[in-house]
Amino acid sequence: MAVFITDECISCDACALECPVAAILDEGNERNPYDDSRYYVKPESCVECVGHADLPRCAEACPTEGAIVWDMPYTQEYESYYAEGNEEGKYAIRVHKKKGLMLPSVKEQKFKDDIDFSNREAHSNVGVF
Ligand code: SF4
Ligand code: SF4
Prior knowledge:
Elements: E1 3-5, E2 24-25, E3 40-41, H1 57-61, E4 68-70, H2 79-88, E5 95-96, E6 100-101, H3 117-121
Antiparallel strand pairs: 1-4, 2-3, 5-6
The protein binds iron/sulfur cluster (2 copies).
């Protein structure tokens, strides 16, 4: 990933159109594992805005403190983290017709290497409030 949207989300729709890689699903999307309760970031798609902006655009647009938090990089080092999260329903990682489940071992994503890992592990708020 990436960033993660928590249950603090108020489904205001400010973030989704800001995403340069269309990684955010609204609360009515059938691929959103949280159904009607909140927005969802696809970890297999989020690039943390690397190459697009200095800070995650979704978090800059979000009015709700604690709604968008840091998650672990979508890299092979965190393969089991995402695989287990997918099994538990925390994520709904895309299943590609030919490649199968799009885990980091199939395709890694970019991540901001200047974010302290303690902030990722603590799922600290991304935004500046
Ligand atoms: S951090 Fe950037 S790429 Fe990731 S979901 Fe937010 S806007 Fe999209
Ligand atoms: S901008 Fe924040 S509160 Fe609004 S839908 Fe996105 S994550 Fe939820």
